[in-house]
Design brief:
The protein is of the alpha+beta class. 50% of the residues lie in helices and 13% in strands. The strands form 3 sheets. A 5-stranded mixed β-sheet has the order 8-10-11-9-12, sandwiched between helices.
Length: 411
């Protein structure tokens, strides 16, 4: 495919992952919000390019949701403002960049040629997907994936026309990275695929891209880095979406855990590596997989010692007792609840975040009648942050015992 080098007279228009303009080698300032009507008009005209856009469609895109007495007059006002804004850029030698001919608004492509990142990405992606030569296909797929820097005009994601165009580019990107994954795995080019999957995770928080990263790192023998990616993904899905790791993700966790080896030569080095790095006072906070291991150990110990243990689920609720899910300050509330649980419980207790509005606590060596005292301590500590009357904590307590257990024959 022929790719024309960027000439200084060409206006580079970037719309994937955000809106920006570069004229020659000079970035142009953007002094207006991307959601302002004038800037939306600018973006629509740049995207329409030399083909142009009918006046009626332009009005629909700009004002379709608004009840205006004279949308045409409002459009003319914004056209006037946009022309003034373009003149202030002092780049186009007072050229009238906006034409209106035969019912179409057009960018003056003859005076100021455009080169859009959307066009470059689309053409490269389509060529990559149609290519049959494996070597050429691999290079084109990598090039297309690197070109995609994010969703189309993300500031205008709520606009219908933007959503439609965004879906087209997203599908092309997903098709390219999926084919790149299959091809690069076959060729064992894990470093290349690792780069693409890391970029993908920065754009879309899809589990498949985290799994792609983990698989690449494991194939390269970099298990500790793979475990870090797992921790990042698990924390995101728990804290932001309230989801447990999938079976695929847990399987990767088990594979990594079996492969990680440490090279400490003496027991003192091993002990040093096991020391806690975070806050040591109060209850122990851990990841969900770590909490699962704690739970299994406590249950096994309880079989022999008879020491009681309980699971306590703490859920943030509003004044009517309904779980908090949409509150803008939910993350702040959860941070305070985390501090309250850590402060109110003992060092021998452990807890983890369970979803976007819950913590799961493992209470060891406590009797059921004392669980209410523990709940009261947590609530009092939480309410001391000034939340009294606004939100509260709902508690559910269950004995911590493995179901369907059989008593061991030997100790």
């Amino acid at each position: 495919m022929n790719r024309k080098s960027v000439d200084k007279t060409i206006l580079q228009v970037n719309m994937l992952g955000g809106f920006s303009l570069v004229y020659g080698k000079k970035p142009l300032p953007n002094n207006y919000s991307g959601t302002s009507k004038m800037m939306q008009l600018f973006q629509i005209l740049l995207y329409a390019g030399r083909e142009g856009i009918p006046r009626a469609e332009l009005i629909e895109r700009l004002y379709g949701r608004e009840e205006l007495e004279d949308a045409g007059a409002t459009l003319r006002v914004n056209i006037y403002r946009l022309r003034k804004y373009i003149q202030k850029l002092n780049c186009f030698e007072n050229t009238d960049c906006i034409w209106f001919q035969e019912g179409l608004y057009r960018w003056n492509y003859c005076a100021v040629p455009l080169e859009r990142d959307t066009d470059r990405f689309r053409l490269t992606a389509e060529e990559a997907l149609q290519e049959t030569d494996p070597d050429k296909k691999a290079e084109l797929l990598k090039e297309a994936c690197r070109m995609y820097r994010g969703e189309f005009l993300p500031e205008l994601a709520g606009e219908e026309w933007v959503a439609i165009e965004s879906c087209k580019y997203q599908k092309l990107y997903v098709d390219c990275i999926n084919e790149a994954s299959a091809l690069l795995r076959e060729r064992q080019e894990y470093e290349e695929l690792l780069e693409l999957s890391a970029q993908a995770c920065g754009i879309y928080f899809f589990e498949e891209y985290y799994l792609m990263q983990i698989d690449c790192l494991m194939a390269l023998g970099r298990y500790k880095e793979a475990m870090e990616i797992y921790d990042t993904a698990a924390a995101f899905y728990f804290e932001e979406l309230g989801l447990e790791p999938s079976e695929e993700m847990l399987e990767r966790f088990r594979q990594m855990r079996e492969k990680i080896h440490y090279n400490a030569s003496v027991i003192t080095d091993i002990k040093q590596g096991l020391q806690e790095n975070e806050e040591k006072n109060g209850a122990y906070f851990c990841s969900y997989p770590g909490f699962v291991d704690c739970y299994h150990i406590v249950c096994r110990m309880a079989e022999r010692s008879g020491q009681p243990a309980f699971l306590m689920l703490c859920t943030l609720v509003d004044g009517e007792g309904m779980p908090l899910t949409e509150d803008a300050r939910l993350d702040s509330y959860m941070d305070k609840l985390k501090s309250a649980i850590r402060s109110a419980l003992r060092r021998g207790d452990s807890f983890t975040r369970y979803g976007n509005n819950q913590f799961l606590v493992l209470l060891v060596g406590i009797r059921q009648e004392n669980c209410e005292i523990t709940q009261s301590r947590v609530s009092n500590c939480f309410l001391s942050y000034g939340f009294r009357g606004k939100i509260s904590i709902r508690y559910e307590v269950y004995p911590a015992a493995e179901e369907n257990e059989t008593n061991p024959l030997f100790w």
